Amino acid sequence: MILVVEDDPQVARLISLVLQRNGHHAEVVSDGESALQRAQANRPLMIFADLTIKGMGGEELCSALKSHPDTRSIPYVIVSGDRDLAEKARVCGADDYMGKPFEFEDLIRLVEKYARAES
Question: Would you say residue 69 lies in a domain?
């Protein structure tokens, strides 16, 4: 399962659809607290998260997951239109980042780079 943390329903649906069409199960949550709980409980293959989400923001979520031994190894990719995206990804410890708007090929390339095969 790949966790998608995105509060824009259209973007979340689009990412989910691209992942499903490429053989991955996606689970979508729209806020940081839910994402933290899901990541701790389900250990996703990887996480795609926006920076601007309700409650706990994407940077705070990234820092929380990367500072905990049980979740630090989960690949975390920030997906955002923020102009300081690279710097924010580096500071919070994200594994990678992808700007919005993005190409479907870039999304799949990141999945292939980070996600272990689903069994």
Answer: yes
Q: Assess if residue 118 is contained within a domain.
A: no
81 inside domain: yes
pLDDT tens track for 15-74: 999 999 999 999 999 999 999 999 999 999 999 999 999 999 999 999 999 999 999 999
CA–CA gap between residue 109 and residue 89 (Å, rounded): 18
Give residue 119's pLDDT band: very low, low, confident or very high (50, 70, 90). Answer: very low
Total structural domains within the chain = 1
Classify residue 13: in a domain, yes or no: yes
CATH number, domain of 82, equals 3.40.50.2300
Write out the DSSP string of 30-85.
SBHHHHHHHHHHH--SEEEE-SS-BSS-HHHHHHHHHTSTTTTTS-EEEEE--TTH
pTM equals 0.94
